[in-house]
């Protein structure tokens, strides 16, 4: 195992928070705090905030991401946004298959896969979310489920394309609840995802894939989580809405 083969990525997922003017203000507050980070720093923002975010982040080390992408290139899909549109708007990353989309908006493993392929083909980097519910964990299905979701999401993704893919292990029971997985639980979940990749692409390839942990990661627990062998950064919800807290997490991943 060699963690140095992988790039740590700290990505904020703002979810449905911040207007364009609030976006500009928050990124301007973050920029000096995040300068000099020794990891990839990404802010995934609502579609309507992308233009403001790209403008505010200009000349800084902050990359901008979206929170979803449609899987078709264009057409009669009212209300949807294509990968090409995101790319032209200056987006580099996109969250795919977040549990809130799986839970509330009918996202399936198949559509997660199609969205991931659309993103990759347009030159975007998908941050693909996988994670078990509390019920699935208590029934003992965590490993099976994480491996299944990971393999399904990566169907038809080539080994070469994996360099542009980030996996985020987000146990559903830890999202927005204040209940964080222990560092060992996070490491184990991430290891299952890595093993799934190894089963399909081989161990050497799996060693190079960035796998984040997400779920109530904050300024207090980030150090311990990102120090784990299989944890290559984090996908941060609530704490990415506060410049100071987010910068502490970025510093933890920069050590
Ligand atoms: P919280 O950090 O608010 O628990 O959210 C995690 C998450 O869902 C990031 O995508």
Computed over alpha carbons, the radius of gyration is 17 Å
Give the SSE string. EHEHEHEHHEHHEHHEHEH
Strand content: 5-15%
- Fill in the CATH topology: TIM Barrel
CATH architecture title: Alpha-Beta Barrel
Task: Write down the overall mean pLDDT.
Answer: 97
Shape: globular
How many individual helices? 11
Number of strands: 8
How many domains make up the coordinates?
1
Mind describing the biggest β-sheet?
Answer: 8 strands, parallel, barrel
Classification by helices and strands: alpha/beta
- Could you give me the name of the CATH homologous superfamily? Aldolase class I
Q: What percentage of residues falls in helices of 4 or more residues?
A: 40-55%
Poorly predicted regions: none
| Strand line-up in the sheet with most strands | 1-2-3-4-5-6-7-8
Oligomer: single chain
CATH class: Alpha Beta
Keywords, please?
binds 1,3-dihydroxyacetonephosphate, 255 residues, 8-stranded parallel β-barrel, alpha/beta, TIM Barrel, globular, 41% helix
């Amino acid at each position: 195992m060699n963690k140095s083969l992988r790039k740590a990525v700290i990505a904020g997922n703002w979810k449905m928070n911040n207007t364009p003017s609030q976006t500009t203000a928050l990124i301007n507050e973050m920029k000096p705090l995040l300068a000099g980070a020794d990891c990839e720093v990404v802010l995934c923002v609502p579609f309507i905030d992308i233009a403001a975010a790209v403008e505010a982040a200009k000349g800084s080390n902050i990359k901008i991401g979206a929170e979803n992408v449609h899987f078709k290139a264009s057409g009669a899909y009212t209300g949807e946004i294509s990968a090409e549109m995101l790319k032209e708007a200056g987006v580099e990353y996109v969250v795919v298959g977040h549990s809130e989309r799986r839970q509330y908006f009918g996202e399936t493993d198949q559509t997660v896969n199609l969205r991931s392929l659309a993103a990759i083909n347009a030159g975007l980097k998908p941050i693909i979310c996988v994670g078990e519910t509390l019920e699935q964990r208590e029934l003992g299905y965590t490993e099976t489920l994480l491996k299944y979701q990971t393999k399904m999401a990566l169907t038809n993704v080539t080994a070469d394309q994996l360099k542009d893919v980030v996996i985020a292990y987000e146990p559903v029971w830890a999202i927005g609840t204040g209940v964080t997985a222990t560092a060992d639980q996070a490491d184990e979940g991430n290891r299952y995802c890595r093993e799934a990749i190894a089963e399909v692409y081989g161990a050497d390839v799996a060693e190079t894939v960035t796998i984040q942990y997400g779920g109530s990661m904050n300024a207090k627990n980030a150090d311990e989580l990102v120090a784990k062998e299989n944890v290559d950064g984090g996908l941060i919800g609530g704490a990415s809405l506060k410049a100071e807290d987010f910068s502490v997490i970025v510093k933890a991943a920069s050590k």
